Amino acid sequence: MTFTDVFPQETPEAKAKRMEWFADAKLGIFIHWGIYAVNGIDESWSFYNGKISYEDYMKQLQGFTAANYHPEQWADLFFRAGAKYVVLTSKHHDGVALWDTKMGELSVVKRSPAGRDLIGPYCAALRKKGLKVGLYFSLLDWSHPDYPGFRRNENKYEKDSLRFNKFRTFLYGQLDELAEKFNPDLYWFDGDWEQPAETWGARAIREKLLKHNPNTIINSRLQGYGDYDTPENGVPVHKPQGNWWELCMTMNDSWGYQLTDNNFKTPYQLISIFADCIGKGGNLLLDIGPKEDGSIPAEYTSCLEEFGRWTGKHAEAIYGTTAGIPRDYYCGNSTLSKDRKKLYLFIDQKPIGPIMVKGLRNNVRVAYVVGKGNNLNTRVMMKAWWSEIPGILYIDVPEGSLDPMVTVVALSLDGALELYPKP
Ligand code: GLC
Predict the structure, then answer these.
(1) Whether the CB of 30 sits within 6 Å of ligand 1
(2) How far is it, in rounded angstroms, from Cα 178 to Cα 180?
(3) 160 pLDDT band (50/70/90 cuts)?
(4) Distance from the CA of 206 to the center of ligand 1, in angstroms?
(5) Which is the most buried residue in 82, 211, 288, 423, by most CB within 10 A?
(6) Domain 12-313 belongs to what architecture?
């Protein structure tokens, strides 16, 4: 069941309009920031899985200072990286809110030395930089007395709808707070798997949020009531069916800050993954885990700086493009300009000969290296005059024009892209 089956009042055109900035954005930053950064342990899951007692987990509240939290510097870094939106954990499964919730006592405002709302300044800093504001919010809340789940295989109570209703009042109250105080451009729900749509009241949640802000966007983790898909930590092998999707991905093996996790992906790996996402029409939501004081460790910042260099140089091949051509035509990632007159070919391996495009009906007006400007030699070969099959387009890419990460070649076509046979 897709969203439009549930809400037939929104036409596909209206949805495409609402989703436009998201589709054009390509790169987002995910931030897992919470008390789990104090010990540097798994966010919420560490007590759920019994790696630490609940009491010891909550002791981290005392060490959460936000003493070096400078959201303007965060926003500046994300902006320079080429991100267009950011998603921050307003509350993870542990139930600790980063804003001054009036719905309960469990917040870093009331219970930690940070002692203040951390979400408002984040929203303001992003908006100042023209970045869209996303808030992650866990539907399930393992700390709430009226929420049934708590630890693996340990439920607080079995089916009790009155008690769950109490929880729902709390949940809706917190969502109202987020909507009214911060009015996010995007809600990034999580934890929906623990209850079915009817129990959460997923439809009501969706209606409430869209009523408050008809332009807002909701990720898929709302039991069928979201707007786009969120594969996690693995690029889909095939292009996903849906029009909108976003891969969320850690830079090492953890969502939050963990001192001992040094298994960082290289900038090359992450940038080629990013190219893979946008080539399949998706976004990358790249995660960082700030320390408890709000500072961002150098491993993340240096990678984001490299993203900035690469996205800045290749902006025309990234933002506002659509998915490229299938790999039968070009054996790599590619994107297309919206008017379909420019095809961008991504090269993430060192070519040992000219790169090739098959099945291209158009003539190439000019081929050039994006961000460098030098024009490239092209030639069409193997074209039989009696056959409909286009010849093979060869493009010479001299070694000196290769990017240290991923090179992009633009083909300016004589009209809108036409492939033979049609994919
Ligand atoms: C998972 C985990 C959670 C993490 C999220 C990010 O759903 O529950 O810890 O925040 O993925 O996508």
Answers:
(1) no
(2) 6
(3) confident
(4) 20
(5) 288
(6) Alpha-Beta Barrel (3.20)
| Same fold: 12-313 with 322-413 | no
Mean pLDDT for 200-217 is 97
> Distance from the CA of 255 to the center of ligand 1, in angstroms?
7
Neighbours of 305 (CB within 10 A): 15
Q: Which structure tokens are listed for 255?
A: 């969502």
Orientation angle between helical segments 202-212 and 161-182, nearest 10 degrees: 20
Q: Domain ranges in the chain? A: 12-313, 322-413
- CB atoms inside a 10 Å sphere around CB 375: 10
CB of residue 233 inside a 6 A radius of ligand 1? no
Confidence label for 233 from pLDDT (cuts 50, 70 and 90): confident
Residue located nearest, by CA, to atom 9 of ligand 1: 43
Superfamily of chain region 322-413: Golgi alpha-mannosidase II (2.60.40.1180)
Q: Does residue 232 line the site of ligand 1, with CB under 6 A?
A: yes
CA distance 399 to 388: 34
